[in-house]
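User: Hello! I'm new to structural biology and keep hearing that structure can be predicted from sequence alone. Could you demonstrate with Protein YIF1? Please show me the input and the output so I can see what each looks like.

Assistant: Of course. The first part below is the input, the amino acid sequence of Protein YIF1. The second part is the output, the predicted structure written as tokens.
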Amino acid sequence: MNYNHSGARRGKPKRMLDPSVGLSSPAVASPTLPMAQSPYMYNQQQIPSSNGPQPDYGFNVAEQPPPPYGFTAAPSHQQTYNPNEMRQESFPGPPYATQLLAEPIVTNMAVQYGSALVGSGKQQLEKYVPVTALKYYFAVDTDYVISKLVLLFFPFTHSDWSIKYEQDSPLQPRYERNAPDMYIPTMAYLTYIVVAGLALGTQERFTPEQLGILASSALAWGIMELLVHTITLYVMNMDTSLKTLDLLAYCGYKYVGINFALLVSLPFQRFGYYVVLAYFSVSLAFFLVRSLKLRVIPEGHSSYSASGNKRRLYFILFVATIQPVLMWWLSSHLVASAIA
């Protein structure tokens, strides 16, 4: 509170009715009366306070603009962030793993473990699939395939139908033309599907579903035929040297005649089809009779009786005569619409 000491004391000094007026709200300067003319003003100093905004006691302080929002450009002296460099620096490759794999002891252990694993898998596979036996039936070459196809079409000129053995095991087909194989039946079966699709295409009856139907039906008939022959051998109690794959190979040769008959039917239609089918049926039956005879009724075997030989002969004739029927059944519907 300020008192005027310039003159003599004349009466009591005047007090402000509310001393807190100058502290609670900033003083507003009057446009007519300047701030220096107010005689009753507290001469207080501004004390900075950290608890809140400082009060304004009549001073016009220029307000600074707030900082702009958003990202600011990095200074030129700062380095930019590279995630690849950070990843390489944070996660360096372990050098001990490469050194461990390079050790000869670890390498030998890995090779031995892999060999043991492959060997156990092969044993499990051979329990269900005769891999070793299949190798024998696919051991063929080009000379064997050509000579065997000639034998199928012209078996009447062949005289020696015996199969040569070496150390109680038959020679591989590449060395023995009379030995059965699975290469020609397999390729003939796949060719049958292609030729059947070609025949249907020339008749404008081809659909992609037809190929699946033909393949599945031919496979089903082949399995049924093999089951019938196997059950017949078991019921008749005939001891032969025929194996299941041997029967499958002999029964698969009919697809060679089916393919040739279908190809001839494209230019010559039904006449060419039946001519080829009839000729190959005779030649295939002759081939099967001569080939199966030495496998079912070996020459000079004294333990076979006359009645037993008769049953064996019936079985051979049954296998030989059912082949032309199946050939006609699997291929006749492929040329029927071309004549109609």
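User: So the tokens describe the shape?

Assistant: Right, they're a compact way of writing down the 3D structure. Reading them back into a model, for example: Residues 5-9, 16-47, 87-92 have pLDDT under 50 and may be disordered.
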